[in-house]
Amino acid sequence: MMDNPQSRRTVYSVSELNSTIRRLLESEFPLLWVEGEISNLARPASGHIYFTLKDSKSQVRCAMFKGRNQLLRFKPENGQQIVIHAKPGLYEARGEYQLIAEHMEAAGDGALQRAYDELKQRLQKEGLFNENLKQPIPESITRIALITSGTGAAVKDVISVLHRRFPAIEINLFPVAVQGDQAAAQIINALRLANELNRHEVILLVRGGGSLEDLWAFNEEALARAISASHLPIVTGVGHEIDFTIADFVADVRAATPSAAAELVSPSQQAYLHRIQASQKSLIRYMQNRLERAEEQSHWIQNRLKTQHPSNQLMQQSQHLDDLGGNLLSAMQRLLSDKKHRLKYSLQSLVNNRPDPFIEYQKIQLGDLTRRLIYLSELNMTNRQQQLANISRTLQAVSPLNTLSRGYSICRDAQGRTVREAKQLSAGDIITTQLSQGEITSKVEKKRIS
Fold first, then answer.
1. Which positions fall inside the Exonuclease VII large subunit C-terminal domain (predicted)?
2. pLDDT by residue (tens digit) across 83-105?
3. Cα–Cα distance between 194 and 172 in angstroms, integer?
4. Among 56, 111, 126, 182, which has the minimal tally of Cβ within 10 Å of its Cβ?
5. Structural domain total, the chain
6. Is 252 left (phi over 0), alpha (psi -120 to 50) or beta?
7. pTM for the full predicted model
């Protein structure tokens, strides 16, 4: 029995065929870089982009869906040479082979992007992007070196922000080209000049947005090394928020835009005023505390002078002498009273015993003792008075008031310090001379040092 050839055939429908081919294309081919010229560009309401990519010999239909084309940094146009990163596929409804683009860039940008990535990786390995190399931005900035185009929008935006936030900041503009073959060299010269002048606290390096090619001067290796070598801190504000240049990675601080860079280096005028007011209040409190402590110290010194003044010492010694005199009088009274009691006892004993010879002898003894007692009392009193006189003379001799009364004086300078030598004064100094009675204020005309 013969096999029917038709029983062994696999028959595809058109839909199955297109679906199978689509799966084969998508599974077998990775993402490819394809370069060509745009033609037949269409932008339907869906937001997708459809176009044909062609060269001198062939063409292929392409699609770029809305989620991907919203990331484009330029607007594709017919006739534009581009490079796409795409995956081959098949549009099943029409059985048309096409490329699904994931990324698109201008044809010239591809080489620039590769050069950018290579330089970034190499400088990163060298350590030029390390955070420990970054210089801090000073808190108080009075002068800014602004390096940018003298005619672009960026310079106007930066100056406007700085004048609005803190008009007192001095801005020195270093006009340079920010695009083109000479831009990097001019920026490097401006950085060198700003560092040599050494009169600014910070350098602002800014420019407006643009394509990768427009911003390429800020991706030059020579400029990156000049930024790294600057002893002044550098703040960059190049392009828009999504733009990152090599200069941004090397700079001490990167701001998203020129205006953001200006805000970063300028304090808020209102915040500065609040800080000044807070400092003023703190200073007032400090001075009040100092005055209170000085007043307390002055009272303490005055009280100490009162207690240690020579007149107080004399009063205390006089009081002590009075105490000694009172103690001596009490001792003498007790002694006399004791003697009287003993005399009375003796007389009573004499009366009782009537020993006439003994009485005469006792009378003589009593007379001697009385005279001796009087003599010793007078001698003791004389010695005490002599000690008091000696103490008084000693106190008078060391008393500054007594020295002043003998014609001497005390000379003090304008700060109240005692002047002991002529070399402490200079011509024109004001001095105060304290006399026994009153003070004299004088001006030094000349001095002589012996």
1. 128-442
2. 899 999 888 888 888 999 999 88
3. 9
4. 56
5. 4
6. alpha
7. 0.45
